[in-house]
Amino acid sequence: MRFIDRWVGVPLCFLLTLMRPLLALVRPRRQPEAPQSILLIHLTEMGITVPALPALAELKRRYPQAGVQLVVLREFSALVHLIDWLDDDVFVLRGESVFKLGWDTMRFMVWCRRRRIDTVINLGLFTRITAALTFLTPARRRVGFWRFHEEGLYLGRPYTHRVAYNLHRHISQMIYALVEALQRSPSEVPLVKAVLPDLKEMVPRRVFSDGELAEARALVQGLYPDFSGEHRLVIFNANTSDLVPLRRWPDHRFVELARRLLEREDVLIVLTGAPGEVEAVTGVARMIGHLRCLNAAGKTTLPGLLALYQVSDVLVTNDSGPAQFAALTDIHIVVMFGPETPELYGPMGEHMTVLYKNLACSPCVSPHNQKKSPCEDNICLKSITVDEVRAAIDAALAGKRQ
Fold first, then answer.
1. Is residue 199 a part of any domain in this protein?
2. Which of 57, 85, 281, 328 has the fewest CB atoms within 10 Å, measured from its CB?
3. Helical (H) or strand (E) element with 176
């Protein structure tokens, strides 16, 4: 992803910036004053989908007459299930190779013109490929984050509405600022000069059918036939995106934590992970080596994973997408932060325990540095002890029992 973003994205954004006058000629001269066909570009940061939901709901409230489309990478296509009101028209982009990305980009340009896209909101945090796609749409209203005098990545000049990315605001507020920018003049620099609402408690709760919950329990039953209503389900998400491996709590800590939790006869531990994480999760399961440690990696879809959270008691997770998705359910989240800060990316809602040591060097990764860090020893996470995580789990289980 970084290779394509740098070696394809930089020259592409530069050339498209030079071609701005030509691109303006091929765009429709007149577009409706209010958005009628809105495109959301969401190719990176799968975990920001949930913090973005309040802003996207506000977008739909402000422009009820507008159709809202989405462009996502193929591996993110399950995100469509999280936005109930989204139009069925979703463009799926293949990012496995430069050739596939180039071919799909040409298809994307035709797709946008057929749908008369007049407004684009780029949810990407300083990624050149999403900036280039914004360039290539026929929209005359184009909203995205802009670095101004901050450190950041070169994007060319794709936006009409340039929003300052504030590293002192929660990501949910910054996505809301993109929506707010649509009602502001592009001449307002920087956007947006407005008080943003506190959205941390505004995450919607997902409604599950009896069938979805029964299927989640059946998954556990299939892995552990003696499963009953007396068992306490503790989910382990021991993985994070390979883009920022510094966010991982060491595997041996998860193993030690699991062995200590399993001293309780009523605890079942369920290891989860995406299809690409099956091998790593299987390795952790083998190290734990216990009958009541169940490996469900690769066995659920995103809706199925959310249903599994709903029927479980506690999720123990690194700072990653599952921590955000779990906020849509009633599960208690125990999340560990290190190279990023919960002040900006903490899960929304109130059923959570955040463990964060707040070292002088933390946070060390951000959208302004493409989430790269010189750190080779994530003491920020290694300082979080098994005792601390165990205490948080015990407190959550006691609260759930009450």
1. no
2. 85
3. helix 171-181
CA distance 42 to 79: 10
- DSSP class of 30: -
Q: Which amino acid is at 87?
A: D
| CATH number (domain holding residue 397) | 3.40.50.2000
Residue 244 pLDDT = 80
Chain segment 154-166, per-residue pLDDT in tens: 889 999 999 999 9
HSE-CB for 125 with a 13 A CA cutoff = 22
Total residues found in the chain within this entry: 402
The angle at the Cα of 246, spanning 80 to 144, to the nearest 5 degrees, equals: 45
DSSP assignment of 41-90, as one string? EE-S-GGGHHHHHHHHHHHHHH-TTSEEEEEEEGGGGGGGGG-TTS-S-E
Domain check: are 71 and 152 in the same one? yes
* pLDDT at residue 71 greater than cutoff 60: yes
Give the range of the structural domain holding residue 101, as residue numbers without chain letter. 2-181
Return the H-helix or E-strand segment holding 162. strand 161-164
Put the strands of the sheet holding 37-42 in their side by side order. 90-93, 67-73, 37-42, 119-122, 141-146, 161-164
* Residue 86, pLDDT above cutoff 70: no
Burial of 35 (C-beta count, 10 Å sphere; 0-12/13-18/19+): buried
Q: How is the chain split among helix, strand and coil, in percent rounded to 5? A: 45, 15, 40
Residues 177 and 214 in one domain: no
